[in-house]
Each structure stands twice: as C-alpha cells, then as structure tokens.
Amino acid sequence: MSGGLPTDVATVIAMAETIRSGDVSAMGLTGELVRAIERLPPTLGEGITRPVQQRGTSRYYTQDFENVAPSPATETKNIVLEEAGWIRAIVSTCIIQAVNVQTAAAVAAVAREYGLQGRAFFDLKFRLNERQGFVYGPRVETFGEAVIITGTAEFPSPMDWTLQKEDGIQLTIRNRLSAIYPEADPALTMRWVTVTFFVEPLEKQPYGF
Amino acid sequence: MDRKVALEAARAAHANPAHAQQWAEVVLRALRDPSAGMTKAVPPGYLYAGSHNLIARRDNFGPEALPENAQGALVGPIGWTSSQPVTIKVPFDVAIEAVSAWAIPIIEGSSPDLSTQLISSARDGRDLFSVAWGINGQSVNFTTGDTPLMIPACSACGTRQVPKDMYWELQRNDVIQVWFRNITNALVASAFGEENEIRLNAVVCFRAINKDGP
Prior knowledge:
The structure holds two protein chains of two kinds.
Chain A: H1 9-20, H2 30-39, E1 55-56, E2 59-68, E3 74-80, E4 85-97, H3 101-114, E5 122-128, E6 132-133, E7 144-145, H4 146-149, E8 157-163, E9 168-175, H5 177-180, E10 189-201
Antiparallel strand pairs in A: 2-10, 3-9, 4-8, 4-10, 5-6, 5-7, 5-9
Helix pairs in contact in A: 1-2
Chain B: H1 3-15, H2 20-32, E1 51-61, E2 86-89, E3 94-105, E4 129-135, E5 142-143, E6 151-152, H3 153-156, E7 164-170, E8 175-182, H4 184-187, E9 200-210
Antiparallel strand pairs in B: 1-9, 2-8, 3-7, 3-9, 4-6, 4-8
C-alpha cells in the first residue's frame, strides 16, 4: 500500500467491482479509484518507459557556434529551458573546415585519434543562471577540453542536473586550434561547434512535446 | 491493463456519480484487458517479434549552400535546412527506445580519390550530415530554448552498435519527420557546386517496440 491506496491490480479491480455493484456507500470510492489507478505500478509494456515519458519527450537542448574566432577570443551563448527538465548528459561536435579533401582527411585522422567528432579542438565551460561555474582549475573556474568534459551520442558524458523552467545555461567556448598548431594554418577554420544536453522533461507533456 | 482507458473511465465515474456503475464496468474491462500493455505472458511455443526498425533514408543528396560560400549564395545558418523532411508513418503503437544513424560519401569515377570517404571523424560517418526530427508536424525537439535547430547526427544519434537511448511513446499513424542536411561543405571548403560536391547516402533508424500484444 502507498499512502493507504492499493498498489496491485487485483485490489483495484475489487474496488471497481464494489462501485459497479451499485452499493451507495461505494460511490464515495470513485476519487480513490482514480488515484489508485494513477499509482498502479507500470505493466511490462509500460515499463519500457516511465509513465511521465510520453510522446517525444527526449529533448536536445543545444547551442551552436559558427566561425569561431581563434584563441584568446571566447564566445558565450545561452540555453534556456522551456520546461523543468532532468539533464542527463552532455555531448559536443566540432566541425573543422579544411581547404581540400586531403587536408580534411588528415584533420579527421587526428580527431579520430585524439577526440572523436573534433572534440579535441575546442575548450568549454558552462555556468548555471550566470552564478556558478562547473569547470574548475586548481582555484578558480577555468576552461576544460571538450574531449574531457563532453561525450559523443553513443557514449555521452553523464550529468545529473534537475533544472526549473527558464533556468539558463551559459556556454562559453574557446578555439584550441592555435594551441595544437602554433604555426596555425589559416586554411583550417573552426566552422561549426555544437554543444548539446540530453534532457528529459519532468512535467507531463499534454500536447505532444 | 489499459491504464489510459481505466483512468479516463474512473475520472468520468468520479465526475458523474449517477453513471458510476456503468463507468466502473469500463474500468474493469480496461484493468482486465490482457493485451494492452503486454501483460499477457507469451504463449508457449509462440515467439512474439516485438522489435522493429523505423527507417528514414536519404540517398544521393548534396550539400546546401553555406552563408558565405564562394558562390555568394545565402541560404541560412548551418543549423537549418531548406529541404523537405523524410516521413515515417508509425505502423502501430510503439515505444521508441533508441536511435542510430549512418552515412557514407558516394565516390564516382573509375579511379576515384577514396580519401573523400576518410573526412569523417565520427563513427559511421555521422558528422557528415545534420538531423532534426518532429512528430505530426508539431515541432522539432532540438532547441536552444528559443529557436529550433539541427545538430550533427553524431550528437543526436548513436551508432548501429551503440544506439542513443530515447523515450518516446507514439501511436499508430503518428508521423515522424526527419530532416537531413549534408554538411560536407562545412568540412571541405571546396566541396560545393556540381563539380566538387560530396554527395551522401544517409539513414536514421529508430528502434521501436511494438506495444500491441501478439
């Protein structure tokens, strides 16, 4: 029993049978019947997803940065949650643009060795509601290499934040190409960076998303 | 047990006590329904094939112009597309539990430069294209909080071996739209225009569990 309500189907069925019998004293049970059905444990089929996870509720909160300037310049953008959500993981991708196919293939080989999806080529830090940093050096907030902080879609970097509607995440990124290639080839540009949080809404979504 | 029907009927009984007996009958049928929710054990000797793959595919598609490419075309940022989505009509009630993606550049010519196929730095070529998806034309669920956008498939989808987990419950005849954008010209500056463009075959696969009973 949970809070005095039955948690097994057989007991709830018995409650519904009492109401069906027409017993006047059972008419007061209808409210309890509603709550009891809501609290029944998921069946095998329902157990594939939690009851709150209906429709397309796995969401991707993302920011993207195009044509990121070389270090020491940094760029900051915000993500605002449209609803309360459980942030489960973070992933990122960095697209380096090369002048030709051969150079692009060489860059890709470096990325495959040192950080899939180009994550070796940029640094990242993030804050919550502009108050608190979550990437620290020895004493103060710092940048961390994206390859360390973020994952890929198949192996995302786990997180566990529970945020409210309209909470904001500030993402700041820094181009690392000049740190890896000090004689930086101007033909390599940081064309597109995306940082994505995997979020499960914590409120039931009545209209699709 | 069909919780949805049982709950709606119980609420109707609560709202209208005069018809509570009739609604209680509906509640009982829904709670006892063995097929809804797959509460019925699989019969001996009957193998129930519940796992399905819902596939969205685009073959042989080229890149779109970037905002400041040499041709001076101005289409929009990389995070969106002007192309139409590929649609999947969901054949039965499903729980979509994972998504994976794959792409490969098409190499033409009798002595081709195979290095074109080595420009990907993600498994299964997933950084060669970006994706977004929506349901029933309602929305896309990739967002900054203000603006919808597409993201590289390597951030949105897993691989064939390790799909990215998802939690969707869709109903029969729901329509999933999947947008694809070839972003190889973001990787190779010269790969644009009919002569030089790198065309792709790409696919997005949703792993689905059939929620209808056997």
